[in-house]
Amino acid sequence: MKLLIAWLISSVAVWVASKVLAGVKIQTFWDGMVVAAIFSILNWLLGWLLFVVIGIATLGLGFIFSFLTQLVCAAIVLKLTDALTERITIRGFWWAFAAAFIISLVTSLGNHLLDQAPPSVSHFVN
Question: What is the percent of the chain with per-residue pLDDT over 90, rounded to a whole number?
Answer without folding.
Answer: 83
